[in-house]
Amino acid sequence: MHLTHLECTACGLHHEARRLLNLCLRCGKPLFAKYDLARAAQTMTPEALRTRRADMWRYREVLPVERDENIVSLGEGWTPLVHARRLGAKLGMGELYIKDESLNPTQSFKARGMSTAVSMAMELGAQRLAVPSAGNAAGALAAYAARAGFEAFIFMPQDTPRANVIECVEMGARVTLVEGLITDCAAEIARRKEQEGWFEVSTLKEPYRVEGKKTMGYELAEQFDWQLPDAIIYPTGGGTGLIGMWKAFDEMEAMGLIDGKRPRMIVVQAAGCAPIVRAFEQGEDHAAEFPNAATIASGLRVPRAIGDFLILSAVRSSGGTAIAVTDEEMTDAVREIGATEGIFAAPEGAACLPALRKLLDRGVISKDERVVIFNTGAGVKYLECFAR
Amino acid sequence: MHLTHLECTACGLHHEARRLLNLCLRCGKPLFAKYDLARAAQTMTPEALRTRRADMWRYREVLPVERDENIVSLGEGWTPLVHARRLGAKLGMGELYIKDESLNPTQSFKARGMSTAVSMAMELGAQRLAVPSAGNAAGALAAYAARAGFEAFIFMPQDTPRANVIECVEMGARVTLVEGLITDCAAEIARRKEQEGWFEVSTLKEPYRVEGKKTMGYELAEQFDWQLPDAIIYPTGGGTGLIGMWKAFDEMEAMGLIDGKRPRMIVVQAAGCAPIVRAFEQGEDHAAEFPNAATIASGLRVPRAIGDFLILSAVRSSGGTAIAVTDEEMTDAVREIGATEGIFAAPEGAACLPALRKLLDRGVISKDERVVIFNTGAGVKYLECFAR
């Protein structure tokens, strides 16, 4: 449609769009898809959107696939933005919302990114896809690869929640459990991918998963009638969701859909794996690998993220912050969110609640602000965390 | 809105709508909500629906809640109707669809019914809700009760999948595990409910869960541009989903949204618990209790259903049939659907596939027909079934 080229997020080098690429060919950093936004804006108007399909492909003009028949979809996106009145009341807030990503295919926000990545693999001719995953990305790739008729090669840490392993197997993926962390899984793929003929769809190591995830930003804007909230609290492992939303905001402003006002972007990480929090506090532009990463929130067990500089830049530009919470705070929050709002959140999503409480206490967020917390996935996939 | 009264499905006795009721006060059979459909049709037009919210409350005129502020919602309904091209091709079919109910809150179609039941409890003043459940209804009640600020008292068989038990606990419900089947759970509630002050929201034992579930019928019609499919294959435990869709079809015809053509309604049950199949084959109007009910598809382990006569009547009027499949066929089908379409189905939903194969073989369904199979829930909640 309106995709024009790929641009390196670090050195700015342009790359041809209609080619299977991973990282910048010059500097090895992530590539962003760029669009002719003026043309996209002609048809993707608030009025036109009102009658469109209830999934993320409603934003067709700013998604990278050229031909409709290459879209690999299971109904991802356009998830509920739940007004959390009872939980808000406990905190003295009238405008607290939960974006509930557990209503995606495979029960997590990872579906969005894999829908675009696998669609682009379809369009550009890759059929053997490999991914390292802390859990939910694995299930999502397994699903979209199966839907496309492709092969999925999935590498997860040995102690990934059982639900993630089983869903991959039941959807026909080839699963390898690796002793170590997601970074070790990535190393294993790097070692073998050339020989095996795999195309790697590791997040931000190919340009299109972030395009799917950015639709969370479009949806927030549209669901709030094109007024972004005051703050977004986002559980951050690889950080592609946050990076994607930040990209979406720029695109929407260029298209005239929103003004220049931005939410404060607030990163939540686990105390046992908080590389971004540490880098933010130390004023670094990049985040060093976090040693001995450990947390029950498997999606936050990402000791090193290739998009670290993009996360830190968005957080700082927005006037946001980064904060860590403990595993115990997360499991307590799962129950609190569950019992007040009826959403059985993933521990990653639940992490937003103790973070919010701390930021209210510190005056970083005020009670009359409009705040969105992201429940990135379904708690039911993390039975191991709730065996008490 | 347009709710006029409740009517007994067996003896036809009218009951006042604005009153907390369970079964017919004369004959003890299920009650149906009745509407002023002529008035509803004035505003609920295909044109008007195009810009409505992407959940089941888009059908506001034919849902029972009077005041909007009583609606207890988590974004249920308006689930994807997935064109199963690859699975269809394996069967020689061009028009096979999967209605994927796993994209509901709490990952199953049970969310629909509990959303209306809890909304009506809110409107009519019940705050302590009890339910017997084979699994997914429990999680759904826990969620909607929490969202409403009500107490949920849940009775499940001891060997219900762990995911169902944990989700209820994490959402603050009071869970009792009962040695026996769902019928034993119901008996326990019947024994205690008066003393405890519980309102029972057992399916079809209160009039409103079926109202939520009927929206599956409205959605099918709207998603197919107001042309119903040739056949619907539906995994049937209590049968409220099928009964609800059948009710929806009548309402839609009365409103002029569809013509008189109906899909053949096809019941699928487990070989280890097939009371409806047995009654259908024996030409009975009611289904006797199925002895020693046993199946891994916990939602199909319903040895006796209060709506049996309604299920059998819909199946027969539609020219449909009833068929049983084995547990092994179900688990094989989970993997086949997963690997071809990327949907990790519940065993209940997967049961539709072997049923479809048999009906194609027997010529009951022909390959050029448009057929919808219902995936009623997410496979990820049934980890016990996939431990191989």
TrEMBL record, chains A, B:
Required cofactor names: pyridoxal 5'-phosphate
E.C. number(s) listed in UniProt: 4.2.3.1
Protein name from the UniProt record: Threonine synthase
Modification N6-(pyridoxal phosphate)lysine occurs at: 110
Species whose genome carries this gene: Pyrinomonas methylaliphatogenes
Highest taxon listed in the record's lineage: Bacteria
Catalytic reaction annotation: O-phospho-L-homoserine + H2O = L-threonine + phosphate
Molecular functions (GO terms): L-serine ammonia-lyase activity; pyridoxal phosphate binding; threonine deaminase activity; threonine synthase activity
